Amino acid sequence: QLLAEDWPFGVEMCKLVPFIQKASVGITVLSLCALSIDRYRAVASWSRIKGIGVPKWTAVEIVLIWVISVILAVPEAIAFDMITMEYRGKELRICLLHPTQKTSFMMFYKQAKDWWLFSFYFCLPLAITAFFYTLMTCEMLRKKSGMQIALNDHLKQRREVAKTVFCLVLVFALCWLPLHLSRILKLTIYDQKDPNRCELLSFFLVMDYIGINMASLNSCINPIALYLVSKRFQNCFKSCLCCWCQSKDLLSLEERQSCLKFKANDHGYDNFRSSNKYSSS
Fold first, then answer.
1. In this structure, is residue 4 part of a structural domain?
2. CB 35 within 8 A of CB 278
3. What is the total count of domains within the chain?
4. What is the CA 62 to chain-centroid distance, rounded?
5. pLDDT (tens digit per residue) in 93-122
């Protein structure tokens, strides 16, 4: 019953919807990877502290993220198609990954799709985050002694942003784990010759349904997680959306300066602005 829904939007939308879905997930995944790398570069490089080359490099990163994500989503548009299916005496036209593909590459993509999605769209951001956060921790410990006060203050800001990025990656992992887990289990333990396969398949379909909703919930949780983790995000949120309910006098000088930096469009070295660009992408 989860699959037996007539698709009323035609073959064009049948191909466009999975394409947009995979492109958006790819943008999220690659943005998390870029943020993790950027946090390490911010701590390890003195030029980052001075703001040298930040806007140009950020623009290049964003363009690359979008281009790569769109290219990787093209096979989804090719693979999905309208399929005729009989269900309870009715003939339905449903939108699914077509069981027979026209080229050998698309047949290989269909067979390896779940493993590819699990490795690239789930394991990759977690592995990159773990690797670069380990390097960043070692770098902070190495530079801990003999640093100037200004550098220490700057590193405090960078640690807050790093904590925010780590929180985003953690929320991403928790929200996407059920969907990937159900599909990997389906590949490894589901057997078409098993007499209890119908009950098992129904269980996997329910897991898929829950996993898809959890994955969609990820986008809703992100701003809430940012509000809970980042003090700067809280201050700017209050300044932007709650200005009518609180006086500017209630905001400290530091908070107002932080919000002004957050709103600025100049070429300064505000690293949280760069992080916000990635999160929006």
1. no
2. yes
3. 1
4. 14
5. 888 888 788 888 888 988 888 899 999 999
